[in-house]
Amino acid sequence: MRPLVYLYTFVAVAALLLWAGAGALERADGLPGTGAIIVYNWGDYIDPDVLRRFEEETRIRVIYQTFDSNEAMLAKIRQGGTPFDVAVPSEYTVSRMIAEDLLIPLDHAKLPNLKNIDPLFLNLPFDPGNRYSVPYFWGTVGIAYNKDALGDGAIRGWNDLWDPDYRDSVLLIDGVREVMGMGLNSLGHSLNDTDLEHLTAAKAKLDALTPNVRAIVGDEIKFLLANEEAPIGVVWSGDAAEVIDENDAFDYVIPEEGTNLWFDTFVIPKTATNVDGAHAFINFMLDAEVAAQNTEYVRYSTPNREALAYLPPEITEDQRFYPDAETLRRLEVYRDLGRTMLSTYSELYLEFKMHRK
Ligand code: N2P
User: Fold this and answer.
1) Residue minimizing CA distance to atom 4 of ligand 1
2) 91 Cα to the center of ligand 1, angstroms
3) What's the CATH number of domain 2-137+263-316, 3.40.190.10, 3.30.43.10, 3.50.50.60, 3.40.640.10?
4) What separation in Å is there between the alpha carbon of 174 and the centre of ligand 1?
5) Nearest Cα to 333, choosing from 75, 69, 125?
6) Mutation test of ligand 1: which of 45, 70, 126 has the most ligand atoms closer than 8 Å to its C-beta?
7) In what helix (H) or strand (E) does residue 175 lie, and over which residues does it extend?
8) How far is the centre of ligand 1, averaged over its atoms, from the C-alpha of 282 (Å)?
């Protein structure tokens, strides 16, 4: 071949390779042809490596957005501006979303990994037959405290937090049901109480906690505790597990007066534009080995029975995060109290938050 022909051939082959390479990149990016899904999840609630694996294995790109409360998530989905394909409400918000016709029924044929979920977590009253939701993580609301600072066993229940010794010592997770629930439980009332007198009393009780409240915060609560910015935190269980991993001065207590047992779930909102992609994502997350990897990262409790085999016993046998049946029996699951009652809760909670000293 003449040199010029070499050159042409070289240029042609190089162009072809570039073109093919760009195509591959595009696919890896999940651009044309392969689709994308928009996942709406709580902050700090997935192993980024799991997301990467999903994208690699399915060629479906994940656009990922986060929220920090059921109420914020619900408002955004109601409003309908973003075409979310998957969302992660807790049980009482699943009920609300079903009632408001915001969800697409799941196609169980596309979720073969549902068989991995412990039947204990299936068919719960908020969604009989799991028509709309499948379990992701579960946990409790409780108290993380620094036993070196306060003394081992210093905290047993909600009412310990009102001790005048704990001035400026308590961080609260910013959640309306969580904080109002603490007020209600501390008075011996139900977390689902709708008696206005009880709710007002709970709010007054919270006001009395104000001198001890250092701050009301979001996901950063775990870093603040682990860094010993405060010795006490009202937190979700998995956040406490992470704090303890970071700082072994901490312990986690399920309050003796009772507390909330919650279940977070995957749903497909009616805003979805890629329903098949959403099912593929949920089914991937239900895979035993994926769920185990995700559980080790996120530190919440997994409802995936098959995943337990992949997890170290230090995790699965820790009664603080996998409490026994007897403990579970004295816990309460939030019920959907309806829009009006939730507004009442929110108003009282807001008043408590705003009028702190
Ligand atoms: C994760 C939040 C846990 C959700 N940052 C509690 N339902």
Assistant:
1) 42
2) 12
3) 3.40.190.10
4) 11
5) 125
6) 45
7) none
8) 18
Residue nearest to atom 6 of ligand 1 (CA): 236
Q: Among candidates 292, 305, 295, 307, which has minimal Cα distance to 45? A: 295
Domain residue spans of the chain: 2-137+263-316, 139-261+326-355
**Crossing angle of helices 275-285/288-298, nearest 10°?**
80
CA dihedral 120, 122, 123, 125 (to 10 degrees): 70
Instruction: Tell me if 2-137+263-316 shares its fold with 139-261+326-355.
Output: yes
pLDDT tens for the chain, 357 residues: list them. Answer: 444 445 445 455 555 444 444 444 444 444 444 599 999 999 999 999 999 999 999 999 999 999 999 999 999 999 999 999 999 999 999 999 999 999 999 999 999 999 999 999 999 999 999 999 999 999 999 999 999 999 999 999 999 999 999 999 999 999 999 999 999 999 999 999 999 999 999 999 999 999 999 999 999 999 999 999 999 999 999 999 999 999 999 999 999 999 999 999 999 999 999 999 999 999 999 999 999 999 999 999 999 999 999 999 999 999 999 999 999 999 999 999 999 999 999 999 999 999 885
Q: Give the pocket of ligand 1 (CB within 6 Å).
A: 42-45, 90, 219, 236, 262, 264
Q: How far is the CA of 46 from the centre of ligand 1 (A)?
A: 10
Distance from the CA of 178 to the center of ligand 1, in angstroms? Answer: 11
Q: Which CATH architecture has domain 139-261+326-355?
A: 3-Layer(aba) Sandwich (3.40)
CA distance 103 to 87: 10
